[in-house]
Design a protein that fits this description.
mainly beta; globular; 12-stranded antiparallel beta barrel; 2% helix; single chain; Lipocalin; 5-stranded antiparallel sheet; 375 residues
Length: 375
């Protein structure tokens, strides 16, 4: 019989914390509104976003920390800060109809895990195996996201990620490149701007376009996607108290079951045949503060809790009773800084610190917004 302890560090391999973005002069902010203040165009602002994606089971390279990635429809804190500094007469805080906003995100995350395998002989109970397995994973994600204002209060979104991973472990050491999971999203603002809180309803669909962790050969490469489709519904709220903007978010995620798998695990000579991902709930809160018209900062906290996933396994040609994984909790504390270089360019930097063993150890991010108009 073999017993394995829990990872001493976080088991997630990918993360990108919420990024600071700003909007150029021709485009409108695509999230929260302002209540007035000194006029200034395109002031920068740090981010703090929260969305969720469901976790993969322990047999895969994914974890609940993936839910902390920025999704289409997340709160964009740059526009919160812009509204803190800029008077506006718009009825809605999303992109106006016909406008297009594009953002480039560069994110880096590091995950270090360590586990101990202890084996005992049957009968005597003597230790016949003692092994420490260490995994180090560096992930760089380049993401291009595009927003389109279909209506003044309805914005459509799409993201295209490119993932690079450098992994060092007892099973696999090497570099993996590939596209991640494409995402389609929408943001809807049901009420016009008022002096009170602003609410935005968000929806996101993640497509399994990345390399599935269930199709790879264990010990030969790593995944770049979750391996299944998932959907997320959420609501964002914000309130501006010039020059501070407070924000919060709540979201729920569910993933589609995957069947007809044939992933062999040589460790215990078992074959993974199916998975039913757990449900996830995420929430977050924070604030942005305008230090000046050209510099802003933010602090935020986000957490994602996912229920256990159910996996189906065949061992020795016998279908085993479905097993449940443990519940996972991923949490991240984000710090952000936005620097306005010119009226159309704001560089935003973020740093995230993992708060639980299911979270990345730390992450770094850079965001460069590009906005323009179709018409």
């Amino acid at each position: 019989m073999t017993m394995t302890t829990a990872n001493w560090n976080g088991t997630a391999l990918a993360l990108a914390c919420g990024l600071l973005t700003s909007v150029a002069a021709q485009a409108q902010p695509d999230t929260q509104p302002g209540t007035g203040g000194p006029a200034a165009a395109d002031a920068p602002a740090p981010p703090a976003t929260t969305t969720v994606t469901p976790p993969a089971p322990p047999a895969t390279a994914n974890s609940a920390a993936d839910a902390l990635k920025k999704q289409a429809g997340d709160v964009d804190q740059a526009t919160l800060l812009k509204d803190t500094l800029t008077k506006t007469e718009r009825q809605y805080s999303l992109l106006r109809a016909g406008r297009v906003a594009a953002n480039y995100d560069l994110n880096y995350s590091y995950v270090g895990t360590e586990s101990i395998d202890v084996g005992f002989t049957q009968g005597t109970g003597d230790i016949d195996l003692f092994r420490i397995e260490t995994t180090r994973a560096h992930t760089i994600t380049n993401t291009l996201s595009v927003d389109y204002g279909l209506l003044d209060n309805l914005t459509l979104s799409g993201t295209f990620p490119l993932v690079s991973k450098f992994t060092q472990s007892t099973e696999f050491s090497g570099v993996t490149f590939g596209i991640g999971d494409l995402q389609l999203g929408a943001r809807y603002q049901p009420f016009v701007q008022t002096a009170g809180p602003t609410f935005t309803v968000t929806g996101n669909l993640s497509l399994p376009t990345g390399r599935s962790p269930f199709d790879q050969i264990i010990g030969q490469n790593t995944s770049t996607g979750s391996g299944y489709a998932s959907g997320t519904l959420g609501i964002n709220a914000s309130q501006v108290f010039d020059p501070v903007a407070l924000f919060g978010s709540l979201s729920f995620t569910a993933g589609k079951s995957v069947d007809h798998l044939h992933q062999f695990n040589k460790t215990d000579n078992s074959t993974l045949t199916g998975i039913r991902p757990g449900k996830g709930i995420g929430f977050g809160a924070g604030f942005t503060y305008a230090l000046s018209y050209n510099v802003s900062t933010s602090v935020s906290f986000q957490e994602n809790v996912t229920t256990s996933s159910t996996i189906s396994v065949v061992k020795d040609n016998v279908q085993q009773t479905p097993r449940n994984t443990t519940m996972q909790v991923a949490a991240l504390l984000n710090f952000g800084l936005g620097i306005r270089l010119n009226p159309k360019t704001t560089v935003n930097l973020t740093a995230g610190i993992g708060m639980t063993t299911d979270s990345p150890n730390f992450s770094l991010g850079l965001n460069l917004p590009l906005t323009f108009s179709l018409f």
